[in-house]
Design a protein that fits this description.
This protein is mainly alpha-helical. It contains ten helices and no strands.
Length: 201
């Protein structure tokens, strides 16, 4: 990696970290480029070398977070999911693996998510995050042919229920300052699903 590329990377990280600190203190609408430059101890010109404006900065950060989540799920699918295995119990095990790894991902990005999901973030992040997550869940479900064929409700309603429930748990967990481990959250998630189904572990 060249010195120029590494310097750019560090500067972008500095701007993003500074921006997150400011978002933790006040709303997105009230933050100016001058605020970011002053807090990061850079000039406004340096900011504009990397971002068009604060909207572009936030958009890039949100997009990177969503892309990282997508790549994370893709890696999990390749690692854990056997698309030739159509056993229902195997599918449940796969879901536990997925949930555990997703909660681990959320823990790694908790500080950013807490801000983006709060009133200080940009409006609509929750919807954009849900849509990206929902699409990945759709791919996972469609790969399990037996489960998909047995689904007796429209898949869009099913996805809405599953993703809303999962993201609701994430929001509550983040608000509770990660009071449980990813493993405990996975156990909680599975137990709730089983309770709704009237089953026991």
């Amino acid at each position: 990696m060249s010195i120029y590329i590494e310097k750019n990377r560090k500067t972008k990280k500095l701007i993003q970290d500074t921006f997150l600190r400011l978002l933790d203190e006040k709303s997105f609408e009230s933050i100016t480029i001058g605020d970011i430059a002053k807090a990061a101890q850079i000039n406004r010109g340096t900011f504009y070398l990397h971002y068009y404006d604060k909207y572009n900065l936030l958009e890039q950060m949100e997009q990177q977070l969503i892309e990282d989540l997508g790549k994370h799920i893709d890696e999990l699918q390749a690692r854990y999911f056997d698309t030739d295995n159509n056993q229902a119990d195997a599918f449940q095990v796969e879901q536990e693996h997925l949930a555990n790894m997703l909660f681990s991902f959320i823990k790694m990005h908790a500080s950013m998510l807490k801000i983006f999901l709060s009133d200080h973030g940009r409006a609509g992040f929750h919807i954009r995050f849900k849509e990206a997550f929902s699409e990945k869940v759709r791919i996972n479900i469609e790969r399990n042919k037996q489960f998909f064929n047995q689904l007796n409700v429209p898949i869009d309603y099913f996805l809405s229920f599953i993703t809303s429930a999962f993201l609701g748990l994430i929001e509550q967990w983040v608000q509770n300052n990660l009071d449980k481990s990813p493993q405990e959250m996975t156990e909680l998630y599975i137990n709730i699903i089983l309770f709704i189904q009237g089953k026991e572990r």
